[in-house]
Write a structure and sequence with these properties.
Length: 241
């Protein structure tokens, strides 16, 4: 049994919303994306990617997958197709558009997560919040190489520069994760408009006291707006019952 809540908001300082999300309850698959690009290209990129993934899963025998290896191959093909679509549309006024993407799929007693970019998936278990995904950002690379400290990363001018995105290049490399799930686990998927404003500790505190997943998604978005709302905010919250 799974309970799901979701919400997207343009925030307090953006004129439009370049985030997209999609829920496929029957397949227990969830998608969050954050578009980048001038004009309205970011919005187009995220919608193209999310729409492609949703359609791919709907028509390509997702329920017939039998094991972890097949599922990874399936999702790899899916994300590569989305990348090809967005990259092919990035011409003219849409040149340079791309989108982050994070996908979560629940199958049996396991969760599977795919990500490209800096939209994240977290797991809250027994009151402890753990980031499942790893950001594909310049800052993360600098941290990994010991070039800056976590404190310096907080206010670095290149804080939001992503190094991988769907549609950013002709070829794409996604990260894949899987983990066992247990009753009362909460998976939180979000764009950087959430964690960039609130920080992980606030997310954990709000999630630990949540009564419903719809309420949690709403509270998280409201918290990001209270902290400035400088970016679009999208959240999908999944509770294992």
């Amino acid at each position: 049994m799974i309970s799901v809540g979701f919400k997207t908001d343009k925030g307090k300082q953006r004129g439009g919303n370049e985030d997209s999300l999609f829920i496929l309850p029957e397949q227990q698959l969830y998608i969050v994306a954050d578009g980048v690009g001038g004009h309205n290209s970011g919005e187009l990129a995220s919608r193209l990617a999310v729409g492609y993934i949703a359609q791919y899963v709907a028509i390509n025998q997702f329920s017939a997958i039998r094991n972890d290896r097949e599922l990874k191959r399936y999702l790899k093909s899916c994300i590569e197709g989305a990348n090809e679509l967005v990259f092919g549309k990035a011409v003219g006024e849409n040149q340079g558009m791309a989108t982050t993407t994070v996908i979560c799929c629940i199958r049996g007693e396991k969760a599977y997560v795919v990500n490209v970019g800096d939209s994240r998936a977290y797991l809250l278990r027994d009151g402890v919040l753990r980031q499942i995904t790893r950001d594909h950002t310049l800052i993360q690379e600098m941290l990994d190489n010991g070039l800056i400290t976590p404190e310096e990363a907080e206010n670095h001018p290149d804080k939001h520069m992503i190094t991988r995105a769907v549609g950013g290049d002709a070829k794409i490399k996604a990260d894949f994760f899987n983990f066992d799930i247990y009753p009362k686990d909460i998976i939180i998927m979000c764009t950087d408009g959430l964690y960039g404003e609130t920080g992980d500790s606030t997310i954990a505190q709000i999630a630990a006291g949540a009564q419903t997943m719809h309420g949690l998604a709403t509270e998280l978005v409201e918290a990001a707006n209270r902290h400035g709302g400088r970016d679009n905010i999208s959240v999908v919250c999944i509770k294992i019952q």
